[in-house]
Amino acid sequence: MVNNVARLEAKSLELWYGKFQALRGISLVIPQNQVTAIIGPSGCGKSSLLRCFNRMNDLIPGSSVKGQVLFDGRNIYAANIDPTEVRYRIGMVFQKPNPFPKTIFENVAFGPRVNSFIGDLEEIVERALHRAALWDEVKDRLYKSAMQLSGGQQQRLCIARALALEPEVILMDEPCSALDPVATLKIEDLMKSLAENYTIVIVTHNMQQAARVSDMAAFMMMEEDRAGVLVEYGSTSKLFTNPKDKRTEDYITGRFG
Description:
By secondary structure, the chain is of the alpha/beta class. It has a domain at 6-102 and 171-252: 3-Layer(aba) Sandwich (Rossmann fold). 34% of the residues lie in helices and 27% in strands. It is built from ten helices and ten strands. The strands form two sheets. Strands 6-7-8-3-9-10 form a six-stranded mixed beta sheet, sandwiched between helices. The longest helix has 14 residues, at 181-194. The two termini are 33 Å apart. The model has no long low-confidence stretch (mean pLDDT 94).
């Protein structure tokens, strides 16, 4: 059953880094409790678009945004919106695993601690590790360094760290690019299971991965001035088997990109 409830929506979204326009006229609706993949050649603005969804670009000096990003119908770029609050509700997992040089427990507990969480931290940590499909592998070494974990385990730990803050949306920027095939498969399985309770948006260069894990897919390209534009957006099955735009077909079949 397809879920058509909009969780995030970009409306005529434009992004600049100084005088360079990185995104032009992006409009798309991201449905709740589905995995949406953003695909396209290097440099077309996929990660820039992802960072627009939780105002991470605000942290880049000289960046500016026009248009809107609606989260549950509210524009996250409105003057009265706290970007820190946005980032709690819309979590992010980065390309390379970036655990803190702390214990496994303290990595997951970090966010709730910073937010002055009052309650059972052990319960929060265990629940987040369960949701990240990591609990059984680390439950006997919670107080050992997270740096001792494998790359795939570190990435799932970073996902658990994001989940500990109880976000509603999880953004993933190439979460498997630094991982081996076995670890990649675990992350893909995890994404599909997490979509039962969270809205997932993933940037990936891997066409097979996008086809395997996503419900919706957005194909982006660069225009001549290097601004990223949205070429086509729709259900993954239609985009991969019957794309409307020849540029989408050319990219998916490997004719360019």
